[in-house]
């Protein structure tokens, strides 16, 4: 259905190709998963299928990509729109209408489908993606995950034969991610749709894939195989595979179910043991306190009476469904919204009434869209400005970027960075200022597993130094690795607040893979399991 013949792509001004030696076929009716580190060219590869690369991005494509027999070099993206539906990493950049319902209908209108068909498909899709309650809402007023659902819905209504999705679950809560993947699987099985999707959180998708394409490095030719074949070789694997490697299971499990079947002997070895607690400082004084916080967004009460205390040295994960109010809480702590009632204090200041230059010494926010934080023309200039703003030694920010994600070039415009590279830059900019309270909104979108591990290490270092951290995240594995405490929001209210292990293990939605496989303990991470086995007398 999709054929790549010796494809390479070189962006203008780049020293080396972003993509090279791609020679492969995605058969009709398969779900094909594209994996690889941040910046290895996944988005570039996906972009060639719908013709966005190079028609819209610039650069040069060598070789040939055909979809349902059409050459994407001679067919413009709109001449492929009836066959290929593409959802990019940044939905906001692609929305053409203002409201949810109009956006779902737009693709069908451009193809001239009859009104009764459009009506029916809009209704079906609203139900399928849990968007019915939001149908009349302006897209600009949706939460990140709500927007991602609309973006996915807007391509589903067209019923394209090929779906190309770039990290389609990155902003979705765990339940919504499962639902979207179930929908995709049904399209593949029942309608013979061909799906090509890139994803970093393999724990969410690998068990659904028929084929995996792995890009081992920037400009390196892909390796293809069944999920089991590629997972046996790839350095980037989900926790369940890592656990399988540690425990010596063969074949390696890809799903929780397979792993549970193999886990009997491991459970016996772990019986009577407990996770070795990580040394961590005793929490200090509060760096942020909110009580009875009510915040309105338009007509909607996004937070209704939230209480939260964050202490120095503490890492708190904020979890909960899309639209629960996580981003609203973070941005209120950063002074971006004025509460309708209740109190909020950050480092002794009332955030929304404080001067920006006083507030930056107390709190730093990495927003859900890191682009909002970046304004210079090059990576180097952005880093120099961050050093200056924070009065840090020259080179501080650049070193942080390189630590988080090696291989980001100095002279690239932040706009042209890959998703993960841009996030690493935004994180470095905020970390350079070393504010006592760090707020991170979905800090792992686009990050590969090694980059995520380095981010966790850096954040742990900061908590050890007494910084307080609040991260809003749907990444249950990240919460398990990093957070001391988990706070769950639902419809603007706090519904759980307690030690990570207590909160996540009691909820199937938030439990990490290791907890689901090993059970009692509570074991949350592969590291805890290996440490305990090694320390065993
Ligand atoms: N429009 C562009 N102009 C110049 N360089 C670009 C452009 N788009 C991407 N690049 C570069 O090409 C490389 C590959 O980027 P791409 O977005 O394909 O990576 P990716 O594997 O999707 O990464 P991520 O997992 O972070 O999303 C990166 O080094 C990036 O900086
Ligand atoms: N600019 C806005 N105007 C009006 N309502 C908004 C606006 N931004 C968000 N909302 C609404 O406020 C509620 C809370 O949104 P928020 O972004 O805080 O949720 P979230 O928990 O961060 O969601 P997600 O997990 O999807 O990022 C949602 O119902 C959302 O639709």
From TrEMBL:
PANTHER family (alphabetical): HEAVY METAL TRANSPORTER (PTHR43553)
Subcellular location: Cell membrane
Gene Ontology cellular-component annotations: ATP-binding cassette (ABC) transporter complex
Any Pfam family hit: ABC_tran
Highest rank taxon of the organism: Bacteria
Sorted UniProt keywords: ATP-binding, Cell membrane, Membrane, Nucleotide-binding, Repeat, Translocase, Transport
The UniProt record lists the keyword Repeat: yes
Organism: Streptantibioticus cattleyicolor (strain ATCC 35852 / DSM 46488 / JCM 4925 / NBRC 14057 / NRRL 8057)
Major subcellular site: membrane
Name of the protein: ABC transporter ATP-binding subunit
One term of GO molecular function: ATPase-coupled transmembrane transporter activity
Function of the molecule: Probably part of an ABC transporter complex. Responsible for energy coupling to the transport system.
Sections of the chain in a coiled coil: none
């Amino acid at each position: 259905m999709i054929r790549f013949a010796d494809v390479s792509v070189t962006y203008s001004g780049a020293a080396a190709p972003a993509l090279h030696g791609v020679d492969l076929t995605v058969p009709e009716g398969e779900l094909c998963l594209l994996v690889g580190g941040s910046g290895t060219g996944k988005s570039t590869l996906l972009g060639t299928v719908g013709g966005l690369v190079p028609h819209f991005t610039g650069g040069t494509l060598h070789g040939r990509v055909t979809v349902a027999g059409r050459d994407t070099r001679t067919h413009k993206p709109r001449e492929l729109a009836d066959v290929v539906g593409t959802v990019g990493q940044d939905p906001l950049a692609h929305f053409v209408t203002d409201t949810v319902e109009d956006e779902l209908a737009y693709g069908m209108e451009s193809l001239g489908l009859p009104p009764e068909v459009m009506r029916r498909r809009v209704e079906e899709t609203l139900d399928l993606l849990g968007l019915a309650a939001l149908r009349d809402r302006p897209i600009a007023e949706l939460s990140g995950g709500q927007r991602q659902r609309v973006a996915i819905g807007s391509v589903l209504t067209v019923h394209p034969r090929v779906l190309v999705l770039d990290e389609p679950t990155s902003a979705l809560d765990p339940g919504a991610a499962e639902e979207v993947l179930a929908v995709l699987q049904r399209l593949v099985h029942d309608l013979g749709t061909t799906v090509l999707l890139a994803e970093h959180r393999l724990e969410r998708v690998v068990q659904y894939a028929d084929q995996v394409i792995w890009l081992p490095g920037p400009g390196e030719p892909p390796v293809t195989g069944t999920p089991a074949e590629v997972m046996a070789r790839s350095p980037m694997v989900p926790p369940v595979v890592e656990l399988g490697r540690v425990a010596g299971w063969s074949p390696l499990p890809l799903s929780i179910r397979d792993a549970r079947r193999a886990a009997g002997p491991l459970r016996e070895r772990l019986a009577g043991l407990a996770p070795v607690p990580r040394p961590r400082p005793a929490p200090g004084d509060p760096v942020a306190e909110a009580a009875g916080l009510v915040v309105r967004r338009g007509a909607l009460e996004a937070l209704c009476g939230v209480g939260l205390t964050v202490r120095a040295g503490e890492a708190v994960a904020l979890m909960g469904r899309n639209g629960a109010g996580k981003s609203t809480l973070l941005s209120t702590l950063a002074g971006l919204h004025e509460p309708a009632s209740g109190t909020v204090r950050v480092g002794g200041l009332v955030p929304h009434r404080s001067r920006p230059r006083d507030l930056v010494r107390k709190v730093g926010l990495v927003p859900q869209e890191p682009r909002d934080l970046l304004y210079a023309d090059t990576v180097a200039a952005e880093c120099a400005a961050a050093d200056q703003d924070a009065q840090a030694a020259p080179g501080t920010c650049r070193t942080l970027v390189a630590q988080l994600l090696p291989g980001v070039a100095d002279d690239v415009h932040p706009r042209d960075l890959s998703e993960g590279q841009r996030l690493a830059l935004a994180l470095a900019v905020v970390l350079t200022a070393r504010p006592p309270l760090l707020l991170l909104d979905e800090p792992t979108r686009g990050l590969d597993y090694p980059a995520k591990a380095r981010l966790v290490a850096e954040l742990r270092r900061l908590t050890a130094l007494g910084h307080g951290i609040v991260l809003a995240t749907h990444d249950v594995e990240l919460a398990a690795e990093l957070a001391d405490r988990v706070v769950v929001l639902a419809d603007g209210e706090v519904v759980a607040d307690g030690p990570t292990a207590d909160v996540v293990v009691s909820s199937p939605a938030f439990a990490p893979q290791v907890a689901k496989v090993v059970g009692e303990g509570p074991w949350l991470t592969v590291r805890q399991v290996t440490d305990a086995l090694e320390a065993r007398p």
